[in-house]
Amino acid sequence: MSRRAPAGPAPAARTTRSRRVVRPPTPPPPMPVRRRPGSPERAAPPRPGWRRRLVLFLLLLPLLAAALLAADAALLASGVTRPARTAAVTLLDRRSVPLTTLGDGFARPLVLDQVAKPMIDAIVAIEDRRFFAHDGIDPAGVLRAALRNLAAGRISEGGSTITQQLAKLAFLTPERSFVRKLREATLALWLDATLSKPEILAAYLDRIYLGSGVTGIRAAARRYFGVEAAALDLPQAALLAGLVKAPSRLDPGRNPDAAQARAGVVLQAMAATGAISQHEADAARTRPARILPFGYADPTLRTLAERARRQMAGALVATTTLDAGLSQRARQALLAGLAEGRRGATAGAMLVLSAQGEVLAAASVPGSVGGLDRAGQIRRQPGSAFKPILFATALEAGYRPDQPIPTEAPVIDGWRPRNIVSPPGPEVTLAEALALSVNTAAVRLGMAIGLDEVIAMARRLGIASDLPAVPSLLLGSAELGMPELTAAYAAMTGDGRLRMPVWLRGIRDEAGRQETPAAPAPVRALQPQTAATMRALLAQAMQHGTGKAAAVPGGFGKTGTSSDFRDAWFVGGTGNGTIVAVWVGNDDRTPTDGETGGGLPARIFRAFVAGTP
User: Fold this and answer.
1) Model pTM?
2) Domain 115-286 adopts which CATH fold?
3) Domain spans of the chain, in order of start
4) How far apart are CA 67 and CA 57, in angstroms?
């Protein structure tokens, strides 16, 4: 029997290196759901069908639309009693004669206590009889208007309440659409719910346009009658209330008969509502309201209104230095002159300056650009009307009026001046050179004195415009404004002192504060003897030179014509030291057909001065 070898350790197994893959544990199987015997099986809740969703949407849509309209109305109505606008400025002439009222109304909101009772009764009677009874919209009024329009066969009456009109005036556009009418109605309901009736009526009276460029009852009362809104009487109130329907067509300045006829309709409506008796209505018809005479409409007035606003915040009334009658005469003289139409000038301007530096008249008649203030803001080449500044410089430098000057044309850097009219000889005196407007002699004189000296004299005489130091400056090639050139003439022909033009005498704001603009102190520009000599030289220019067509007793002045006949000027004065500047040309700077300062401007000057007392 064989013996087994004892068991030893097992031989080592052959191993290889490999990656171990980690597998996620297998989840246990779900536990079975045990149900009680006899219990029903639960089902998922049914989803709503499209019909149900549509019905729900249709039910919510009106609520959503109402919420949006309410939010829109609240947003629009947030500033109804606090309008942000620029106050209108009423301009008066130097004698407190109303010239015009320009602007949107008053910066401060109107309070109904500031309006006369006849005015309140008139506007309610003619625009919205049930104003104090309805809630912003008047269904009865709408139905009544619809029936009357149907009977008339046309739209003869509207059904909008004052509250609806306020909504349209203050916040909405005049477009005719269902959406706009819906917004108007919603806003009217909101205004009536959030504001008192006096607040709504005051806001309405503060925004209505009443013709002649005025907005609001306060501005209209001043413009047409020269009174405050609180002082309006019955005929005046009836006239203003009647303008609301068609302020342009019923403008009492242009169509007084139609305006008074409409006022009669208002008076009858007031009697029908019981606001006044029939006897009071009949009596008011026999004494119709008289409006103030209209001043002159001129673009210069808009510039003056802006000047008043810059001078004083909240400016309400500005007393100007203008004379209404003189300004109207200036405008008529320009229009009559341009109507000649001989040489293609279509625009003109005139400025009248007193010896004390006050602007007495300013007129700017339309050419191709309406509303352009040519008298106060536009710069044009003065041509030879600049020469008196050169000759004043010569006199101050020691030249004499009888000093001879060669007339041969100099050549300066390739530029050579030309004369419109041939000089009388190879030499002229300084006085003749000015009177006959000899360009070649003027350039020789100016170059001998020095351009810097001439520019320095222009600055002393108040010329603030850019003055290039080129030889053509001596012949008026630099563009100047009419006020600065007129002031320079006043200094050169007066006492030698410069007085900057003054346009305003006093300004008052809504709070009653008064302000008197300080006139700049006169500044010595020339010696008195130089000014006296210049006046005598310019009198010769009028009597024997290029200004003969402007000749008036005791007058003086100088013509000016720019290159290519684009600008024609006459600047002169009268025996009392008043300076009158006249310009004609075209707004687009196209040349005229040879118009010169000795032609149309000189004739306009003479016509104006001859008609001035």
Assistant:
1) 0.71
2) Penicillin binding protein transpeptidase fold (1.10.3810)
3) 115-286, 327-610
4) 15
